[in-house]
């Protein structure tokens, strides 16, 4: 089996490659990435792409069709990956997350790829009061990132192909990675606890967030890589996570503090209620993928992050201005004349 993973050199890619290497030892794993974050290694003793057979470099907006020929599955991880980046680079977010995803999917279908896996997001539910959201419930994307994800889903569904397409609406990612991001709620709280001894929750702590560890994201992707059409349909959009991993933000802060004794939690009880709150129903994913359910619970995610950050000798109380924040990395490339505002490498960058 040959599997192409686009955008494999980010936060999620290393755990995915590691999992697939173990789960499918005979598979040929191929990565394609433009290396925005290649240098953002966090405590890795070896290059994480060691788990791949081949690593290629380039912009997914111009990925060669030849890259997909002979592949059984394509996993589309490449994206402008959160709300701050989406807000600053709105046009690029739409272009990469939606338009490029569709271009890759169409090229994959023409190349005879059997399965296409798209990393979507539960953020498409946006402001969602009431019971946990199911796949059939109304959507309310409120950010450029969320809009690009659901836009891609809608267009994927329209492609006339026999290729099996799975849009995994992932819960909010968390956990340790060889390219760790700290611009995620749980990861941020753990970093605050270690570097400052204090977690400050800017809201009243009541908003709900579903979480999934990156290791469990890899398990879900492994399932989707050869999902047969009769298990969910030729096209499937499914919430990927677990019902017991819906948390209120204040509970996450308190759980991190409990795991790192001496940490103070400060919650702004006078803050207006944060409308960005949603719970998600993962029942469909449980019924379709019983052998690929999340295994890493909240406490284990926290412990893995603590261990990983301590292994890095992490002490930076100002980490929100560091390269552990993806927006800061992109801005650094731009400020140093390596990227243009369309997030394309400048020719001069190749000379450095």
TrEMBL record:
Domain of life: Bacteria
InterPro entries: Epimerase_deHydtase (IPR001509), Lipid_A_modif_metabolic_enz (IPR050177), NAD(P)-bd_dom_sf (IPR036291)
Signal peptide bounds: none
All copies of domain NAD-dependent epimerase/dehydratase, residue ranges: 3-231
Xref: Pfam families: Epimerase (PF01370)
PANTHER family: BIFUNCTIONAL POLYMYXIN RESISTANCE PROTEIN ARNA (PTHR43245), NAD(P)-BINDING DOMAIN-CONTAINING PROTEIN (PTHR43245:SF23)
Name of the protein this chain belongs to: UDP-glucose 4-epimerase
């Amino acid at each position: 089996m040959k599997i192409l993973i686009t955008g494999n050199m980010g936060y999620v890619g290393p755990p995915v490659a590691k999992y697939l290497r173990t789960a499918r030892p005979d598979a040929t794993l191929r990565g394609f990435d433009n290396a925005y974050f290649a240098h953002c290694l966090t405590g890795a003793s070896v290059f994480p792409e060691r788990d791949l057979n081949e690593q290629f470099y380039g912009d997914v907006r111009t990925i060669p069709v030849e890259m997909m020929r002979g592949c059984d599955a394509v996993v589309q991880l490449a994206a402008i990956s959160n709300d701050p980046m989406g807000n600053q680079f709105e046009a690029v977010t739409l272009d990469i997350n939606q338009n490029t995803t569709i271009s890759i999917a169409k090229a994959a279908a023409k190349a005879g790829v059997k399965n296409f896996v798209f990393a979507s997001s539960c953020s498409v539910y946006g402001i969602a009061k009431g019971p946990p959201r199911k796949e059939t419930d109304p959507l309310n994307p409120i950010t450029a990132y969320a809009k690009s994800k659901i836009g891609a889903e809608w267009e994927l569904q329209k492609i006339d192909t026999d290729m099996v397409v799975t849009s995994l609406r992932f819960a909010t990612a968390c956990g340790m990675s060889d390219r760790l991001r700290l611009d995620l709620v749980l990861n941020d709280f753990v970093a605050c606890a270690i570097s400052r001894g204090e977690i400050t929750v800017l809201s009243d702590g009541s908003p709900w967030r579903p979480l999934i560890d990156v290791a469990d994201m890899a398990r879900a992707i492994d399932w989707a890589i050869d999902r047969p059409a009769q298990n969910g349909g030729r096209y499937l959009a499914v919430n990927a996570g677990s019902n017991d991993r819906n948390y209120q933000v204040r509970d996450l802060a308190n759980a991190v503090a409990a795991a790192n004794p001496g940490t103070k939690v400060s919650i702004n009880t006078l803050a207006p209620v944060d409308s960005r709150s949603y719970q998600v129903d993962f029942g469909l994913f449980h019924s379709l993928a019983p052998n690929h359910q999340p295994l890493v619970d909240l406490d284990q995610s926290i412990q893995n992050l603590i261990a990983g950050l301590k292994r890095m000798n992490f002490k930076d109380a100002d980490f929100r201005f560091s390269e552990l924040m993806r927006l800061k990395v992109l801005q650094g490339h731009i400020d140093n004349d390596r990227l243009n505002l369309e997030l394309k490498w400048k020719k001069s960058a190749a000379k450095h």
